[in-house]
Give the backbone structure.
Amino acid sequence: MLGALAIGSLVAACGGGSPPPAVAKAAAAEKSIPFRPRPGVNTVDCPTETDDCASTSPATCEAACGDGDMAACVALAEWHARHPKDGGEPARGMELLRMTCEKGFAWGCLTLAWKKEATAGDRVMSEARLRTACERDAMCGCWMYGSGLTGDPRTEVRGVETIGEACERGALTACDELEILREICERDQVRGGMCRRLQQGWRLRPPDPPPPQWSRAPLPAALTGCFRVTAPGGPREPTGFLVGTLYCFTDGRTFMKPVGEPWDAWRAQWSSTDERRVFRNEAIRELMELYEEKPQVILQRGGFTAWLERLAGPEAEAALAETRALPDLEEACARAGRCVNALPYGYDGVMPETLRECLSTEKGAREMIEGERGKEAAEKACR
């Protein structure tokens, strides 16, 4: 899908009577475009919307769009563009993309920027909204901003440089797009200015660095304490990345409290490279990384990104007090383990790791043992 989008971004802005693009400035030509992330930084695959309502139906997308789901609106717009013989209305699709972009939905702005039907006003609006997305998210937001800039011959050189910066910071989707654009330019000099800039950057790229070495490291003060999610990084975030979710990090624990839900907790064993910039929790199955991007902290987990702001004063004290009052994690999980080991029919599931998982597993196992052997047997097996 990314390859098709990259090709589309090149073809979309190729006008028959366009003047030849300006050559990049000499100072820019002397600078390498990063084609890979910096060693030691955490990386993320930016969420991309690929569905055009084919897996559901236009009516379903229409209903979801009417309820305010901007991703569904973009999917519906793509359906209108791709299925004119089935009742799709390309003009309606463009209206939907303009609406999502006006509301600040970055994926809608990027899709609009790629369209050959986009007007000069559309490009001005999409560039402004995507610039804001880049200011909020230095990885995925800046990838979308740079990708949108490549749709216009006047900004394409700046676009590939911006994509390169996002790649260097850890947006793997940006790195992939650079490679696709470079391959396209090798086969066909579609854009003189952009292709020359990519070739210059490729020639100047530094040699592959050795892989970073991770080792146990205490969590620094800048990343210790309690935080609130202020901005998620993708269009469809899971519960733990919604705005308002609380996190507390210590050297041995991570705590999370989604809005309207109880606290959860899991073990933490932090590691880092010699740069001590990114800290990885290696005590859990799902990779979790933290790093400071002043004045905020960035959390990445399971391919999603969230921006965190530190709690202070009574708010921070209250959050810490609530985490201290939680049941002991090791004890709860050990009790859950004893319960499942005593199940009449055995247990072939993955052992729980978080506090809520352990408490829920213990409750379910107790009920099964009680149903088979009685309450006293369950109490004896689980204690």
Summary: Confidence is low (pLDDT under 50) at residues 1-29.
